[in-house]
Amino acid sequence: MNLTLRVWRQKGPQDKGGFVDYPAKDVSPDSSFLEMLDRVNEELESRGEEPIAFDHDCREGICGMCSMMINGYPHGLEKGTTACQLHMRHFSDGQTITIEPWRVKPFPIVRDLITDRTAFDRIIQAGGYVSVNTGSAPEANMIPISKEIADAAFDVAACIGCGACAASCPNGSAMLFVSAKVTHLNGLPQGEPELLERTRRMVEQMDAEGFGNCSNHRECEVACPKEIQMRNISKMNRDFIRSSVLSRVFGTNGKS
Amino acid sequence: MKLDAKIPSGPIAEKWDTHRFQMKLVNPANKRKHTVIVVGTGLAGASASASMAELGYHVLSFCYQDSPRRAHSIAAQGGINAAKNYQNDGDSIYRLFYDTVKGGDYRAREANVYRLAQVSVNIIDQCVAQGVPFARDYGGLLANRSFGGTQVSRTFYARGQTGQQLLLGAYQALARQIDAGGVKHYSRMEMLDLIVIDGYARGIVTRNMVTGEIRSWVADAVILATGGYSNVYYLSTNAMGCNVTAAWRAHRRGAGFANPCFTQIHPTCIPVAGEEQSKLTLMSESLRNDGRIWVPKKKDDTRPASQIPESDRDYYLERRYPAFGNLVPRDVASRAAKERCDAGYGVGATKYGVYLDFADAINRLGRPAIEDRYGNLFEMYEKITAENPYETPMRIYPAPHYTMGGLWVDYNLMTTIPGLHAIGEANFSDHGANRLGASALMQGLADGYFILPYTIGNFLATTKLAPVSEDHPECKKIEAEAKERIQKLLSAKGKRTVDDFHRQLGRLIWNEVGMSRKREGLEKTIREIPAMREEFWANVTVPGSGDHLNQSLEKAGRVADFFEFAEVMARDALQREESCGGHFREEHQTEEGEAKRDDENMSYAAVWEFQGVGNEPTLHKEPLEFEYCKPTQRSYK
Ligand SMILES: Cc1cc2nc3c(=O)[nH]c(=O)nc-3n(C[C@H](O)[C@H](O)[C@H](O)COP(=O)(O)OP(=O)(O)OC[C@H]3O[C@@H](n4cnc5c(N)ncnc54)[C@H](O)[C@@H]3O)c2cc1C
Ligand code: FES
């Protein structure tokens, strides 16, 4: 099939950027969306033009690197699918496809479709872990965990950190991402000792990065390629309230 | 080049303990005075950086992705082995050791493998304590499955996303140390070269992939945890960015490269669909527990699978290997699929595919049971092929997946360049000529959490290093070389894209140094590569400049290194006059077409020393001795 791509091109963070149209010719319906972009890029390169820059690595929907708005939706419209897993058979001949980067303030555009998502790393650094040094772990089966709790932890731990939640949210909120990690760890006995401090610090870091608030638009849940659910946000909010009350009474344990 | 494996003396079960006692320790107060560079944030790199920072070392960490959490380890599906014997089915450290040496077709170093089996149990403890949500039984204890044809259930897993969950555990441990200040991490920073000063690895040169800045970093030791080189084949199950650059640059600076021809071709991947294909997708090996593999008995049978009656189907693995059937090891299953397809019995549009059929299992166990076991894999298959595996059999074909070869290391995981260590898939490994399923994750984490953090201490405590800074003339010289190389790539301004060259190289290597190899083809490959390489440098097009984010340039640098590396891969395959593990030489097979190993003459690790591009490298040999696992011919009949 033949398509027209309307692609956001921007040389760097300071550049104004704008849309440029490219034809995508003889696209095989069996190729993936990124393979379709590869073809267009190879054509540009053979003419000595700079290809469209986009992030990708695993191309299996698990690394979270690919990130683009396809016709206005993060990773496109297919449910539970990353851009790299989207196949061209979901598009029709003659269609125009608009491709843009994530538009979220804390994710500045680096070039074309590539943004800087290190804000997510900094949120994890603010407590998204269990403090256990190598070698100090007890025998694994000393911590029995019911299958339900373990399965629930897995469901949220499946987050790939792509940022689609924030990109889909009219407020640019990262609550789905943050709550996924918070509920994964807070829900397990291993994560319980640091529950309050973890929640408070991660939420504070999220705010400091400039992510917006959650006002229940529910776009994030629809956009999430791993189908992580919004009820995690309310769980996190409960822990956060407990944490802020307690820290007001007892102080913040030396860490800010 | 001197190869001293530094294997501690004494009985195998005591070697590691003895060694740990004999190693010198760094005074706790001195640890923070030592800087260590770790390139890579996969299972091996992230676990090593976190553990060393916990000990007090000052760690500089690097990766090429935009976040350490995206290293290729994230994609591992099936599971991780450990000799916990939770299932009470007769597993033990010794059995895991034995299975790994045997599975590797007796081309691994016994002492290392034994240590790997020993620390495997600590890995599971560590990961569980970090909050890794492994699968559990209803009683709340950890669940196991059997994987890759072993007779015990020792594989721990987190649905089909074990690598993701283990990597996030290690990433979080790393994040904690970044938070605490012990690790400085740099994403989108690609290592382009190694800095060797006075015979010691003292740093690296990187390119900032956003700004294009080329700069040096110095340290007291350098650790490469940069993964495997399956992408030399162009199409593989690896992530797009996986490369040989870091290891190859270290090799050029004097690190021996061991067994480059030992590569693993995984039997269950989705077949190539067309020319646009950019990578191949693995379908977990666990599928072979319930799926039956077959092809039509008639050549060029064009009937859809559903219309081919039982009597016209050839369940060739069950036929050839009645004892193991569909569960034969990876190398055997892959070659058998290739044999059938080469003979004209393949299925699908390209005829390079075989069926993996779940109809029997669905009849026997019911669809819900199959859904529970493999639901996410079936979904992934359907997303890619638009075929429903509950109704029609999957089509699969082997694909490059893992590389057993890598930088040669001694028992302390140090390469032939003092101070330069290699861990994870980047080193020539504990897996010999063939890796067993679920053992790469184990090895990466064993190296990073439990081995390197000890052995690095001994190196630092026993080595006197002169202080160096980034202004050292050697740093400046290597920076200049890196810049010059980039300039050369940019100024070729040729006609062909980097991908086009990569595809050409990949096709050649896949055909001649893939699932089966023969003298003629290998000699032809060694002859053809230099010309291809020359054409690459003369006729490649790399638009844009070096001082901004430039993905064509990144790829070009990696492919240029693959062009040098591929040659030694072919040479290695040529000198190995036997068939063992993933390396099958057509000249060395039994009458029934099975692999024929030559223990008398080939029981060694082949270690190559660089002699300049285009010059024949020198071959060194580390003899392998088998005191505990006596080599036997593998037989799965
Ligand atoms: C699809 C798939 C499924 C698998 N499933 C399993 C399984 O079930 N069980 C199992 O045991 N094994 C499995 N494996 C194998 C296993 O995943 C890998 O061998 C292992 O994860 C490698 O880990 P690593 O830490 O050595 O390297 P990687 O995870 O590949 O990490 C490499 C790191 O090095 C960095 N890097 C590389 N080059 C440079 C450079 N030049 N400059 C800067 N940084 C660089 C990267 O950014 C990355 O951080 C699977 C592999 C694949 C492909
Ligand atoms: S490229 Fe890894 S999730 Fe899309």
Automatic annotation (TrEMBL), chain A:
This is succinate dehydrogenase. It is an enzyme of class 1 (oxidoreductase). Transmembrane segments: none annotated. GO terms for molecular function: 2 iron, 2 sulfur cluster binding; 3 iron, 4 sulfur cluster binding; 4 iron, 4 sulfur cluster binding; electron transfer activity; metal ion binding; succinate dehydrogenase (quinone) activity. SUPFAM superfamilies: 2Fe-2S ferredoxin-like (SSF54292), alpha-helical ferredoxin (SSF46548). PANTHER family: SUCCINATE DEHYDROGENASE, SUCCINATE DEHYDROGENASE IRON-SULFUR PROTEIN. Keywords: 2Fe-2S, 3Fe-4S, 4Fe-4S, Iron, Iron-sulfur, Metal-binding, Oxidoreductase, Tricarboxylic acid cycle. Its EC number is 1.3.5.1. The keyword Cell inner membrane does not apply. Residues 150-180 form the 4Fe-4S ferredoxin-type domain. Belongs to the succinate dehydrogenase/fumarate reductase iron-sulfur protein family. Its cofactor is [4Fe-4S] cluster; [2Fe-2S] cluster; [3Fe-4S] cluster. GO terms for biological process: respiratory electron transport chain; tricarboxylic acid cycle. It comes from the Bacteria.
